[in-house]
Amino acid sequence: MLFFKPYKAPIKGAVVLITGAGSGIGRLMAVEAARRGARAVIVWDLNAESGAETAGMAEAAATAPRFRSGAFTVDVTDAEAVHEAAAQTLSEYGRVDILINNAGIVTGKPVLETTDRDVQRSFEVNTIAHYRTVREFLPGMIARDRGSVVTIASAAGLVGVPRLSDYNGSKFGAVGFAQSLREELRHMGSHVHTLLYCPYYISTGMFAGVKTKFSLVLPILTPEKVATQVLDAIDKGTQFKVHPPIVRLVQILQAFPVPFMDAMVEFFGVADTMNEFTGRAGDATK
Length: 286
Ligand SMILES: NC(=O)c1ccc[n+]([C@@H]2O[C@H](COP(=O)([O-])OP(=O)(O)OC[C@H]3O[C@@H](n4cnc5c(N)ncnc54)[C@H](O)[C@@H]3O)[C@@H](O)[C@H]2O)c1
Prior knowledge:
The protein is α/β, with parallel strands linked by helices. The chain has one domain (about 15-285): 3-Layer(aba) Sandwich (Rossmann fold). Helices cover about 45% and strands about 15% of the residues. The chain has eight helices and seven strands; from the N terminus they run βαβαβαβαβαβαβαα. The protein has helices at about 25-35, 50-60, 80-95, 115-145, 165-185, 225-235, 250-255, 260-265, and strands at about 15-20, 40-45, 70-75, 100, 150, 195-200, 240-245. It has a seven-stranded parallel sheet with strand order 3-2-1-4-5-6-7, with helices on both faces. Helix 3 packs parallel to helix 4 (about 115-145). The radius of gyration is 18 Å and the shape is globular. The structure holds nicotinamide-adenine-dinucleotide (NAD).
């Protein structure tokens, strides 16, 4: 089927579920979705307190009549917990129109310092959880032939960076998952929309300490800008977005011999970005 386009899934009037919305861009997307007229915003996060706080912020920003928000304390690495929370979500809200798989973690360790637990946890949160939530909420979208599944991946899902082997691997996995999902839906003629979003570093604290060499072309992004961009992309029906746009160059560079690609990674300072990384202590050990 050539030039197949999924239907748009506007935020206005939608029931939106965001994983990892207790902080960072997830929180900002929750508040902005409420401001844009979402009918309900559902927050899933490991952290009960911050999740409830986001739900309250969404409530305060909401513009839709009879808006509802709710927070569920869910560890997306726990298959049973995801299944139970999904059942409760569907029984309380009836449906999920827009699912944003946003929860993510990073260890920032050189490969030889990573443990099995680090690697497993990174893949569990950053990749495997996406399969779980999609299994719960995609069937309803397919039945209605409407909806959107959003994958918050990363530029680190497109290019390898020192000290990100577990994160890179898991984000490449998320990119592969999202691409396969899009192809599968298109191939079966479903109009459910998917968005794969791959941003460069964002100043949320998750990657505290990272440095960028050329801040004009490769700026550290503000969480506000990213949250707005993701919601704009959903509203417009965009299916793949990287930010800043120069990150797209990676896909062209990959067609060249490896030493040239590596020289560009050095030149743009990407290989040094993680040198002073501190991150959020405790992320990998939760
Ligand atoms: N910050 C960046 O530089 C950057 C760059 C590219 C992509 N991203 C991606 O964007 C997404 C959001 O990042 P952020 O910067 O807002 O991070 P953040 O650390 O501010 O927020 C992540 C949220 O996920 C939650 N979370 C972590 N593990 C969880 C689990 N097992 N179950 C449920 N919730 C869990 C945390 O409690 C937190 O509220 C992540 O997927 C991240 O990989 C971030």
